[in-house]
Amino acid sequence: NAGVTQTPKFRVLKTGQSMTLLCAQDMNHEYMYWYRQDPGMGLRLIHYSVGEGTTAKGEVPDGYNVSRLKKQNFLLGLESAAPSQTSVYFCASGLAGKIEQFFGPGTRLTVL
Amino acid sequence: RKEVEQDPGPFNVPEGATVAFNCTYSNSASQSFFWYRQDCRKEPKLLMSVYSSGNEDGRFTAQLNRASQYISLLIRDSKLSDSATYLCVVIGGNNRLAFGKGNQVVVIP
């Protein structure tokens, strides 16, 4: 099992560009999450999904959109990137009713 | 007050020594508590859950103090491989995980 994978690992964008981060999990988990981690800050939840076709806002959803068309994939989109979105983005997944979350290796995004 | 607060450190500890640190939480109704470990430039991984009665896993001991609203992690006989950031995690509002900023531990040879 690959667990949770994220694509790409690194990306540099210019202000105003758009991009999509892909998260995939092969553990048949119902729940999936997108977090961002910034220096001096804890992990902050952007959006999450409790099942295929459903998404919900987390703590810091502005400037991001998500989609969960397939159970195993959770996409995070930036429509118009801003320097404030420079961060490390982690995807995580977990079983319904279970607390433990399994994290992907992260995507390091820089917006110039 | 932040949901979860941790002193980022770093906590410099000689190899073989014991190190302990706390995490405070603001929501008195919180029921579930965890410690995650995050290595430099890696993803967080679950280290251990924290039970009301406390729990031990090898050299690691976690305690919960509900009255003072903090959890603690103690590492005995520190190894170089214990160098990492330890994230305190609490089930916060809306049943979601709330992460602290982490306690950075540096084990010195």
What can you tell me about this protein's structure?
- The complex is a heterodimer of chains A (112) and B (109).
- Chain A has 112 residues and is mostly beta strands.
- Chain A has no helices and eleven strands.
- In chain A, the strands form two sheets. In chain A, strands 2, 4, 5, 6, 9, 10 and 11 form a seven-stranded mixed beta sheet that branches. Chain A has a four-stranded antiparallel beta sheet with strand order 1-3-8-7, with no helix packed on it.
- The relative contact order of chain A is 0.34.
- Chain B is mainly β.
- Chain B is 0% helix and 54% strand.
- Chain B is built from no helices and eleven strands.
- In chain B, a hairpin with a 5-residue loop joins strand 9 (84-91) and strand 10 (97-99).
- Chain B is globular.
- The model of chain B has no long low-confidence stretch (mean pLDDT 92).
- Chain A binds chain B through residues 35, 40-45, 48, 58, 90, 99-101, 103-106, and chain B through 4, 8, 32, 34, 41-46, 49, 87, 91, 96-102.
Blueprint of the fold:
The complex is a heterodimer of chains A (112) and B (109).
Chain A: E1 4-7, E2 10-13, E3 19-25, E4 31-37, E5 44-51, E6 54-57, E7 65-67, E8 73-78, E9 87-94, E10 102-103, E11 107-111
Chain B: E1 4-6, E2 11-14, E3 19-25, E4 33-38, E5 44-50, E6 55-57, E7 60-65, E8 70-75, E9 84-91, E10 97-99, E11 103-108
Parallel strand pairs in B: 2-11
Antiparallel strand pairs in B: 1-3, 3-8, 4-5, 4-9, 6-7, 7-8, 9-10, 9-11
What is the structure about, briefly put?
The complex is a heterodimer of chains A (112) and B (109). Chain A is mostly beta strands and 112 residues long.
Shape of chain A: globular
Largest interface, counted with CB-CB under 8 A? A-B, 17 and 20 residues
Element-level helix/strand string of chain B: EEEEEEEEEEE
- Largest sheet entry of chain A: 7 strands, mixed
**Main β-sheet description of chain B:** 6 strands, mixed
Number of strands of chain A: 11
| Secondary structure tally, helices of chain B | 0
Which stretches of chain A are poorly predicted, pLDDT < 50 over at least 5 residues? none
Q: Gyration radius of chain B, to the nearest Å?
A: 13 Å
Number of helical segments of chain A?
A: 0
Helix content of chain B: under 10%
Mean pLDDT of chain A: 95
Q: Note the run of SSEs of chain A as H and E.
A: EEEEEEEEEEE
Contiguous low-pLDDT stretches of chain B (5 residues minimum) are none
Coarse structural class of chain A: mainly beta
The total strand number of chain B stands at 11
Oligomer: heterodimer
- Give the end-to-end Cα distance of chain B, rounded to a whole number of Å: 37 Å
% residues in beta strands of chain B: over 45%
Query: How much strand content do the residues of chain A show?
Result: over 45%
